[in-house]
Amino acid sequence: MDHFLGKEILQNLIQIRTFNSFLEPMLDAKHVQNVRVMLQEDFGVEGRGGYFTDNGIIRDVIQNHLFQMLTLVAMDLPEKVIGPAAGKQIRDSKVKVIQDMLPLDPKEVILGQYVGAGGKPGYLEDDSIKPEQQAKAKKTCTFAQLVVRFNSERWKGVPFIIKGGKALHEHKCEIRVQFKLPERAARQECEVPVNELVLHVYPNEAIWYKLNMKTPGLAQKPMQSELDLTYKERYEGVYLPEAYTRLLLDGLRGKSENFVRSDELLGSWKLFSPLLEALEGSGKEPLKYAYGSRGPEEADKMCEKLGVIHNENYHYPEHTEGEVKKGA
User: Fold this and answer.
1) Radius of gyration from C-alpha coordinates of the chain
2) Residue 145, beta-bridge partner list
3) What is the largest CA-CA distance in the chain?
4) Does residue 203 have a cis peptide bond before it, meaning omega lies within 30 degrees of 0?
5) pLDDT tens digits in sequence order for the chain, 328 residues long
């Protein structure tokens, strides 16, 4: 059981793709520039350092939670997404997209470990790390960013960037699909921002699409706004059960689509085991980053090289209580 598959936005993702004609044709290498799957936490291990030293961030959240999120975006849609046949067909599609993935390249991995800052302790200062674990703890990663690539016609050449980290500057989990600019946009006499689909898993469930429009009034300059579905505003008072509650109910009802099948799990580890062996066998210590920062600078530099564009002039509305900030 991967409880992330019980979260509202992820349970909604397949239906959003299936039942909206404008979206699915855009999810391919012709239209998509990059995809980012992120889990950022603004707190450290907080007494779990002993456990974390034996596992690290890739095993903790990337191979399972974030990888599951990625497959839901990248997989081909099955014929059935609702009903008795849906469970098998959805899981077949997830297995197929894992088989289309190329081996993970250690050269496209950034690893980090936070150090104390702003009065917060560093990872190695966590008192749950035993003295005999100290040598291993120095090489334990609390931040990782890696790239998944595909050999399929649909996604060939599109980098899927997975990032997970602790003690970062903000707390959020989301998927971002950044699209290529239309050809006409490059021929204009002004800069046109890129379109982006954002699925904000938590906190404050929301889905929005960054679209370009004329600046209101007499100006002609393009600006970025959004088509916005913020759950707490659109569905005020609607009960959204916790992820484990959903999955336990699915199990009782015999619904299998939100559970990880054994061949999918094995396929995942066939990708991650060689990577972990290479990384852990290198003996390198992770890059240091300050508690409360964005993580290692090298991660942002890699994203820029992979075509990720940040629009610093874009502001998402404050109705998500500031969780999504300037340049998001």
Assistant:
1) 20
2) 110, 163
3) 68
4) yes
5) 788 888 999 999 999 999 999 899 999 999 999 999 999 999 999 888 888 998 999 999 999 999 999 999 999 999 999 989 988 999 999 999 999 999 999 999 999 999 999 999 999 999 899 999 998 999 999 999 999 999 999 999 999 999 999 999 999 999 999 999 887 777 776 777 889 999 999 988 999 999 888 888 877 777 788 888 888 888 888 888 888 898 898 888 888 888 889 999 999 999 999 999 999 888 889 999 999 999 999 999 999 999 998 877 777 775 544 444 444 5
Separation between Cα atoms, residue 220 and residue 121, nearest integer Å: 50
117-124: long-range contacts (C-beta < 8 A, 24 or more apart)?
A: 117/290, 117/291, 117/292, 117/293, 118/290, 118/291, 118/292, 120/44, 120/167, 120/291, 120/292, 121/44, 121/291, 122/291, 123/44, 123/45, 123/49, 123/52, 123/167
3 is annotated as an active-site residue:
no
Residue 113 structure tokens: 């470990």
pTM for the full predicted model? 0.90
What is the C-alpha to C-alpha distance for residues 23 and 197, in angstroms, rounded to an integer?
10
- DSSP of 89-117: HHHHHHHHHHHTBPPPPGGGEEEEEEE-B
CA gap 91, 260 in Å, rounded = 8
Partner residues linked to 120 by β-bridges = 117
The residue among 149, 143, 182, 132 whose CA lies nearest residue 165 is: 143
Residue 51: strand, helix, or coil: helix
- The stretches of the chain forming alpha helices (DSSP H) are 8-18, 49-57, 67-74, 86-99, 134-137, 231-234, 243-253, 262-281, 297-305
Domains of the chain: 3-320 (3.30.360.10)
Catalytic pick among 65, 310, 315, 319: 65
Structure-token pair, residue 294: 């964005």
